[in-house]
Write a structure and sequence with these properties.
α9 packs antiparallel against α10 (161-178). The protein has helices at residues 2-28, 38-42, 45-53, 58-68, 81-85, 96-99, 114-124, 130-134, 137-153, 161-178, 192-199, 201-210, 214-220, 223-229, 232-257, 265-271, 274-279, 290-303, 306-320, 323-334, 347-351, 354-364, and strands spanning 92-94, 376-378. The chain contains 22 helices and 2 strands. Bound molecules: protoporphyrin IX containing FE. This is Cytochrome p450 domain-containing protein.
């Protein structure tokens, strides 16, 4: 009887807690005055339903809600407002729960605190500078040639061009960031398993974001167990993770042991990597720990894979499905190609081609970064002023 009473008290306490929470969220929370579905105000499960159970549909639901509650101030869909909101002024945090889905909250991409982001970003920014990218032009050209050669060799057969493009972007990203040639363009199937696994990353992201316990539990499982039950895509993904973690470990150790360039080739390979950039940066020692650097490498490598591949696939589709676009583009490219020249046109020349620039910009417009919102939280109050442009 006594234990029954205890259960009553416990149940009542839980009910009282949730009733108070619902009351707070509906009436007292600073966000309560914003219009929108009351269910969404009460619980994140509203978002979970669209993202996890309807497969990443929350982005589209937001657009729908925006039309319905057009006067709301906490969402926006005017493209010109992008520059106003995602501006370097002020202090902005990312909402931890919306970014920490892959267990890499110590990385630049998925970290949430303004100050930590700033120092991490400052450490890797020189690596992503244009001169540094240009210095790798030889590697990029080599991969372009390899891609073209493989496509020519496959002439007359049916093959997966999308997978070839993914392999191309992976070879570029791995070469650029890690200084490693995994040579996926040489594989018969272009390592399609990893592409398929990357396409499933959206579902995984939504699941681990909303069901917070799921990611850590998955990580805690022995790899051998996962390998036994995983499909080919997941196996390829795990092998890739093991490979880049091992390479990061080796490169970081080498970077730390030689802080001045000796001029030998292996040393140069280490020098040209993001791991070395971090290892020899002004970051405090805690930021140079192997576990932290691995957390930085995963999302950054991931950021350079299917984003770029999807954009290229879209550009190829745009160009090859419209004879007029293809004709104009070829005509413009011919204008900078010197007959019999052994070198390709320079980046500077290509950047000055208006039609090529327009085609690439169009391919970038859908922003294939993933179906995720990128909310910001103003740490210091900052008023955002934006006047909707008058059309016509
Ligand atoms: C067409 C290709 C790409 C698209 C559409 C794209 C899109 C994006 C977007 C939308 C963000 C902002 C995420 C946020 O604020 O939450 C971002 C951040 C980032 N991306 Fe990309 N990206 C592309 C290619 C790349 C490549 C090739 C790399 C590196 C190899 C890269 C590395 C990064 C990094 C490091 C960040 C974090 C920057 C920061 O937080 O300061 N991205 N990207």
């Amino acid at each position: 009887m006594e234990s029954l009473n205890r259960w009553h008290v416990f149940t009542l306490a839980v009910l009282a807690y949730y009733a108070t929470l619902v009351f707070y969220r509906l009436f007292l929370d600073p966000l309560a005055r914003f219009p929108g579905p009351r269910l969404a105000a009460i619980s994140r499960w509203y978002e979970t339903y669209y993202d996890v159970f309807l497969g990443g549909k929350y982005t589209f639901k937001i657009a729908e809600l925006h039309k319905e509650y057009v006067r709301t101030n906490c969402m926006w869909r005017t493209p010109q407002f992008y520059e106003t909101l995602y501006h370097l002024d002020g202090r902005w945090d990312k909402y931890a729960w919306t970014y920490d889905a892959f267990g890499a909250s110590d990385s630049t991409v998925f970290g949430s605190g303004h100050d930590a982001h700033k120092i991490r970003r400052r450490a890797i920014a020189p690596f992503f500078s244009k001169p540094n990218a240009l210095a790798r032009q030889e590697m990029l050209c080599r991969n372009v040639e390899k891609l073209c050669r493989r496509i020519s060799d496959l002439d007359g057969t049916t093959f997966n061009l999308g997978a070839a493009i993914s392999a191309f972007t992976r070879d570029n990203a791995n070469g650029f960031i890690l200084g490693k040639a995994y040579d996926e363009l040489d594989l018969d199937d272009f390592g399609i398993g990893l592409s398929i696994a990357s396409h499933g990353a959206g579902f995984m992201w939504h699941t681990t974001k909303h069901l917070r316990w799921f990611g850590p539990k998955l990580k805690a499982m022995p790899v051998s167990w996962i390998m036994k039950s995983a499909d080919e895509g997941m196996k390829a993904f795990i092998r890739f993770m093991q490979q880049y973690e091992q390479d990061t470990r080796g490169t970081l150790a080498a970077a730390k042991s030689s802080s001045s360039p000796s001029g030998d080739t292996s040393d140069n390979v280490v020098r040209n990597t993001m791991v070395d950039q971090i290892g020899n940066s002004n970051l405090p020692p805690a930021e140079k720990r192997l576990e932290r650097v691995i957390q930085e490498m995963g999302p950054t490598l991931g950021a350079g894979l299917e984003t770029t591949a999807n954009t290229l696939r879209l550009v190829f589709y745009l160009v090859y499905s419209n004879a007029e676009i293809l004709r104009r583009l070829r005509q413009e490219l011919v204008s900078v190609a010197t007959t019999g020249a052994s070198t390709s046109p320079s980046l500077k020349q290509l950047e000055q081609l208006p039609y090529l620039t327009a085609v690439l910009t169009k391919g970038l417009r859908p922003l294939f970064a993933g179906h995720m919102d990128v909310p910001r939280h103003a740490v210091s109050p900052r008023s955002l002023r934006f006047l909707t442009p008058v059309s016509g």
